Amino acid sequence: MTAIEYYVPEICDFRAHGRKSVLFERLIKELPTNLDAVIMEGTMMERDNDSFPDESAVEEAIVDAIAGQTNLSFIIGSSQNIDRLVSAYRACIKTNKSLVIDLYTAWILEQLKLVSDSVPNMSWERMRVYFPYRQYEIVRANKECFGSFLVRALERRIKKDELWEHRNQYLYLAKLSSGPLFNIYKKAGRVKVIYSQWLGYLKEPSCRVANLQSDPQVEFIYAHTSGHAVRANLKEFADALAPKRLTPVHTEYADRFGDHFKNVVRLQDGEALEL
Description:
Rossmann fold, 10 helices, alpha/beta, 33% helix, 8 strands, 2 domains, 275 residues, single chain
């Protein structure tokens, strides 16, 4: 049996338009050579980030949206999109507001704190933690796993009454399931909802917040840049590697890879790549 050597880039964000774009530039300079095959995703093959080319553009859009807002502001985004959490937090600093996250998001940031002290976490001045009942019960029932996390989270907790009373001072990280919460704050006036995820989610029948786009009591704002690398950067990466075979995955446009990349070998589901 022939041994197969493989190379996995030590990089958590492959985007050249993310906040750690320097890592992509460094990777290009340190790539291995003589590769037999490269497997490349192509989510952004026929899409672009023209409206929001990078995270700084998203951050400024958030600032514009929440500055001067007298009701609670919402941003719908993933708890695992760390760049977006940083953008939201920086926007809060610029607008003299604080970011409200749930326990799940707080736990993710606590794990990142173990490897980086530059990512916002619940102990930072402009960060507060909201306790959804179900999340609270899970943490409380598994103290052996979460250790002192709950005690420390309680120190940063924001309750419903405080959030309502000072709603103009906060940006709330919401989810696609947060419909009932939007309805509560609509009673206090028009709310701003910043949608910061893939637009395709809004087209799914199960999406609870899609109707906010036409709600007269909601100012629905889109501010998002993709979590995937754009085609130009994928091409830069492929050109630097110059592999003998390049196989596309995770794309709706595998048939178009040959127009932009060399040595493309397309595979069907279940088909093996022979080296």
